[in-house]
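BUG: 3D viewer hangs when loading the predicted structure for this chain

Environment: internal workstation, default settings.
Expected: structure renders.
Actual: progress bar stalls at 90%.

Input used:
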Amino acid sequence: MTDSAAALASEAVAVLSGRRIAVLTGAGVSTDSGIPDYRGEGAPVRTPITAQAFFADDAARRRYWVGSHLGWRAFSSVPPNDGHRSLAELEEHGLSTGVITQNVDGLHLRAGSRRVVELHGAMRRVGCTRCGQTFDRRDIATRIEHDNPWIIVPDAVRLGPDGDVPPETSAAFVLPRCSLCAGDLKPDVVFFGEFIPGEKFREAEAIIGDSDALLVAGSSLVVNSGMRLVERAHRRRLPVVIVNRGTTKADDRATLKIDGGASDLLRAIADGLTASV
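Structure tokens produced before the viewer hung:
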């Protein structure tokens, strides 16, 4: 970390000290775990599947499920990084009211955070679009490999931030079906073109409501869900600290904006906040 970044981290500690902190995270928090960002510098061009395309026909679902399965095997094995651990430590010390994340990787929970609102869902769960039954993704992965023995998970994949991998072929893929009603299965994530469930957004609002400050990390806030939460905090006149590489849509709302990587800066902020606890 540069001297200027360290100085900015100290400024963040000064802004946040003595306050109950809500945390909002985006893909930039997970890049140090090996999961690429959608919009960061050098990010690959991505065309994530939309809900409309997924429900259009079996061919679209086959293409999605092959790529999603290949990505899942790599996606589920990446470890939390120091940024995730730093946020878990803030909660452990009673300084954070919880984490609201736009990520679907589950790394906050694996790092030890307990109050986590996954705004866009989680790749570790799969749901039936007909009857609503929920399944563990590991069980579905086992079924997929049993029904599609030709699938070989490569040692290295071009992993996307949503756990997807562009497949070479999907024509012969046998789709997983619900074991209760034979309905179509879909990972428990919010696709482009879908709305965040109202109950989930209210859980996120409750974390903001319990807090005296908002720390945003690794999000450009281009996705409307994150920006709406920043607006909630801004209307309540809460201090807003943003840590992100590059500009965000809420830079003009920030009490303090730090341009930099999440892991090192979150570690410095957490260390500063917990030093006197």
